[in-house]
Write a structure and sequence with these properties.
The chain is mainly beta. 14% of the residues lie in helices and 47% in strands. The protein has six helices and 14 strands. The chain has helices at 7-18, 45-54, 146-149, 232-243, 247-256, 345-348, and strands at residues 73-85, 101-113, 117-119, 123-125, 128-138, 156-169, 173-186, 195-209, 215-229, 271-284, 288-301, 310-323, 328-342, 352-366. A hairpin with a 3-residue loop joins strand 10 (271-284) and strand 11. The two termini are 36 Å apart.
């Protein structure tokens, strides 16, 4: 990978200095023509969804309205999630008759609140950093093993670093600027970083607090993803090292097909994203929370062979969380999503319906 992947670390810490003085005290299966099956528009969906789930607060941004004197508020979260999916692109090739698979995700996250800063009399900003390390095991029960070893995009270590600048406005409005860096890599066999991406995002959130204490949350956002991965030449060198195939042979096939080794899916994830979501948070006592939700996400790709492609994903879900203690909780999730892809006839084959169900156990500690 190029040196660009380190540029995000510089951006990540700039806001920490900008707020140094507080106020009066906040997957698609690859076709035969694609060299790497993991470079598809769905690759990061599960990882990012898990990352955001770890940081959800049933009361939304309301807790930020009380400006704290403390400058730093670190916390650690460890979770284990077991999920079922009917996504046809997450089935092993040797299991054509199956329409389901499972996954086990282990996550460790470190969250650091950088303080809460009053801006005028009615606005509060609570910048925060988040670092997440996640490992995914595909189908650990039936363990198709050899098939999934051939597809490194399904068994990955993923690092996610994010910076969030939420501005809590009057009347339960919030404006959130965020930036997320994501870098997946293989852990079976030779460790190899697959790609990385940077996604700046702007979100607008409105919370409606009901007399019962329940909350209806509406959000709309826009983002742009910059991605980078290896060229065909770099990929073929790694393939030759790991399999013993001749690099000259791979190069000859590529040239005969009319392609250049300097080409490749280096930025196939680049695209403009738009999303809208609505959720209802129902509280049952102090321990049980129920959240039905609906969301829509659209991505218009802007680079490479995906340039004419647009993905639209609709998701209807229901989640429940039960907090045994302040540090221990268990949650269940049930989602149905349908993805529709436009563009070429080949892109249309990437459309699918997916039912997801799972259970997550989480342990957290705030310092």
């Amino acid at each position: 990978m190029t040196g660009k992947k380190f540029s995000f670390s510089i951006f990540l810490f700039l806001p920490a200095f900008a707020f140094a003085q507080p106020a009066n005290s906040t997957n698609a299966s690859s076709s035969g023509d694609e060299p790497l099956p993991f470079l598809n528009a769905d690759f990061f969906a599960d990882s990012l969804a898990e990352a955001y789930t770890l940081e959800e607060d049933p009361m939304g941004a309301q807790r930020l309205l009380q400006v704290r004197d403390s400058a730093l508020t670190p916390s650690v979260n460890v979770s284990s999630s077991f999920n079922y999916t009917s996504n046809p692109f997450k089935q092993p090739k040797s299991s054509k008759t199956h329409n389901k698979s499972t996954s086990l995700d282990l996550s460790l996250s470190f969250n650091l609140g950088l303080g809460e800063y009053g801006i005028g009399d009615e606005v509060v900003c609570a910048p925060a950093l988040s670092f997440i390390q996640m490992r995914s095991f595909m189908d650990p029960i039936e363990d198709y093993g050899s098939e999934f070893l051939k597809d490194p995009g399904l068994n990955t270590d993923t690092q996610i670093a994010s910076l969030s600048l939420p501005f809590v406005l009057p009347n339960d409005f919030s404006l959130v600027f965020s930036h997320t860096y994501t870098a997946p890599s293989t852990y079976r066999g030779k460790k190899q970083q697959l790609m990385y991406s940077n996604t700046p995002k702007l979100s607008f959130i409105k919370n409606f607090i009901l007399d019962s204490g329940d909350t209806i949350s509406f959000s709309a956002g826009a983002s742009y993803t910059f991605s980078e991965s290896d060229t065909l030449e770099e990929q073929f060198k790694q393939l030759a090292d790991s399999t013993g195939l001749s690099f000259a042979f791979l190069e000859a096939i590529t040239v005969q097909a009319g392609q250049s080794l300097a080409d490749g899916p280096a930025n196939l994830q680049d695209g403009i994203g738009h999303e809208i979501s609505i959720s209802y948070t129902k509280l049952f006592g102090e321990k049980l929370t129920l959240v039905p939700s609906f969301s829509y996400f659209s991505t218009a790709f802007t680079e490479g062979s995906n340039k004419s492609r647009t993905d639209k994903v609709y998701n209807a879900g229901l989640s429940a969380n039960f907090a045994f203690f302040e540090w221990l909780s268990i949650s269940g999730l049930s989602n149905f999503s349908w993805k529709r892809t436009s563009g070429t006839e080949e892109n249309a084959l990437l459309s699918f319906d997916d039912f997801i169900g799972g259970v997550t156990i989480a342990v957290n500690h705030s310092f």
